[in-house]
Amino acid sequence: MIEADLQRHYGVALTGVWTGQLSLRRLRVLLEHLPADSATAAALAGIDGGPLAGWTLNDALLGRLVDELSQYRWQWEMAHQSKGDRRPAPESVLPQPTHVPVSAPVVSPHQLGGFINFEEA
């Protein structure tokens, strides 16, 4: 993933570290400044292959804005039409999740991973 991002965004081969063409300092700087839509940034954020993979923050916010404006316009039109002229609400421009996330198990205060709970001791 890192190798592909370096090649895609900077045209730099990761093998340059071993050949001496790419210093570790420069590699660190390039990695720290990868764009938000890079595969490495998505993996670090836990977005691997999710419905918004490849979308930047601006893309997602603009998509949300389009959805909100579409909904407001639809609501205004429905409020000013007779009941026989109703039409369905507009669909979202944002990709919808393909699966429902599993909720995390609830952990009680006395199950703190083996740590001593001083309130009960």
Mean pLDDT, to the nearest integer, reads: 77
- What gap, in angstroms, lies between the N and C termini? 48 Å
**What Rg is obtained from the alpha carbons, in whole angstroms?**
24 Å
The largest pleated sheet is described as:
none
Overall structural class, as computed from helix and strand content, comes to mainly alpha
The geometry reads as: rod-shaped
Helix content: 40-55%
> Any idea how many domains?
2
Architecture overview:
This protein is mainly alpha-helical and 121 residues long. It folds into two domains: 1-54, no CATH class; 56-94. 42% of the residues lie in helices and 0% in strands. The longest helix has 23 residues, at 57-79. The protein is rod-shaped, with a radius of gyration of 24 Å. The model is unreliable at 114-118 (pLDDT under 50).
